[in-house]
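Notebook, bench 3.
Goal today: get a predicted structure for Type II toxin-antitoxin system antitoxin, RelB/DinJ family from Eisenbergiella massiliensis so we can plan the truncation constructs. The sequence was checked against the plasmid map this morning, with no discrepancies at the termini. Length recorded as 66 residues. Pasting the sequence as submitted so the record is complete.
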Amino acid sequence: MHGYLTTAFNIFVCQSLREGGIPFAIKTERPNKETIAAMLEAERIAKDQSVKGYTDLDELFAGLKK
């Protein structure tokens, strides 16, 4: 395993020197409007005291059967 890491590091360094920088784009993906809306809804639901919460899957499935 150690040999693979050394090889990967050497490849990375050589490519970085050739390109004059990191050889791949460093970026963060931005969620679309639908994903942002879902995240906000999930946050709202999580804070809503009137929404039933579950501590494990068995409790959740029992609640779904009701």
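The CA atoms of residues 6 and 49 lie 52 Å apart. The chain has a mean pLDDT of 90.
Flagging this for group meeting.
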